[in-house]
Amino acid sequence: MDAALPIVVAGALVGFAVGLTGMGGGALMTPIMVMVFGVNPTAAIGSDLAASVFMKPFGALVHQRAGTVRWDIVRRLLPTAVPAAFGGVFLLRALGDGDDLEQRVKYVVGTALMLAVAGMLARMWLDRRRAAAAEEAGEDAEVPVRPVATLLIGLVGGVIVGMTSVGSGSLIIVMLMLAHPRLRANHLVGTDLVQAIPMVAAAALGHLLVGDADLGLAATLLIGAVPGVVAGSLVSSRVSGSAVRWALVVLLTGSGLSMLKASSTVILLGCLAMALLGTLTAVRDRRSVRSAAAETAESADTAEPAGAPGPR
Fold first, then answer.
1. Whether 150 contacts 104, CB under 8 Å
2. Which of 192, 49, 63, 181 is nearest to 122 (CA)?
3. From CA 153, how far away is CA 92, in angstroms rounded?
């Protein structure tokens, strides 16, 4: 089909962003399919979930081999996440049918995208706090699981994923960070990736049963997305993803507000506000690094080497 190549390219770009930042692809791919390629919102959600079923295991396998999966947390998430993701599909259908349903789905996806923006901002803020706290208390790979909180995270996250395809990598991981603040960052990512496989599969199955998922579209997305994820993962180990994360925040803000039918002025102001916040944060980080380097250099200059001979 004529749109095959652009969809492959879009899949590659989204896959690259996912590999680079660890963010879930639903927050990017669903709005792209709706706004750029004109795919019906429900079909976009179902197709994105079907593609994600085959994307998630790549990252999960890497973390499993590295031993960075907390299986006790996974076991607490899945009893609520899997049925909630499956049920979320039918909850979405309860919103209506025909054009009314498609319009309401846009509002639901737009709301989920704005939640994803809030989740990304919260994750960056929490990462900064965790980095500072790690110097004092240290992160802990064996931090005990919080059963009730984890079950609730699975329930809330599963419903959102089933209804919108957004949240498996942008909302659930933030909730896990809040519930287990001392858990190591790589364990958070690995745990989230592994639990997302059955959860996303349950949501994709639900959309297949109601006829929302387009397997041909999902396969086309995967042609670009799989190598994109691999390339993004390789690059992520060499460069900082901070600028990319802020670019994604701006993009998701614009996409979410567009889905919510906001005016052009509101969309522009929202994107500019996020861009300004990212710029100010980057400037502050640079100043902090320079200040720390200057203090270190000053301490080295004023400190007298041990064993240095005194004046004659």
1. no
2. 181
3. 19
| Interatomic CA distance for residues 68 and 84, integer angstroms | 25
244, 30 contact by CB (below 8 A):
no
Helix (H) or strand (E) holding 298: helix 264-302
Q: Among the residues of 67-146, which ranges form H helices?
A: 71-93, 98-136
Q: Which amino acid, 237? A: S
Q: Tell me the whole-structure pTM to 2 decimals.
A: 0.77
Q: What string of pLDDT tens digits covers the 312 residues of the chain?
A: 456 888 899 888 888 877 776 666 777 888 888 888 888 888 889 998 988 888 888 777 877 887 888 999 999 999 999 999 999 999 988 887 777 778 888 888 888 888 888 887 887 887 777 666 655 555 555 788 899 999 999 999 999 999 988 877 778 888 888 888 888 877 887 888 889 899 999 999 999 998 888 888 889 989 998 888 878 767 765 655 567 678 778 888 888 888 888 888 898 999 999 999 988 888 887 887 677 677 767 666 665 555 555 554
Buried b (16+ CB within 10 A) or exposed e, 63-101: beeeebbbeebbebbbebbbbbbbbbbeebbebeeeeeb
Residue type, 51: A
Burial class of residue 171 in the structure, from the number of CB atoms within 10 Å of its CB (0-12 exposed, 13-18 middle, 19+ buried): buried
CA distance linking residue 84 with residue 290, whole number of Å: 48
- DSSP state, 97? S
Q: What is the C-alpha to C-alpha distance for residues 213 and 207, in angstroms, rounded to an integer? A: 6
> Which among 44, 3, 1 is positioned nearest to 25, based on CA atoms?
44
CA distance 96 to 139: 47
**Which of 294, 223, 280 has the alpha carbon at shortest distance from 7?**
223
Residues 6+ apart with CB under 8 A from 183: 70, 139, 140, 141, 143, 176, 177
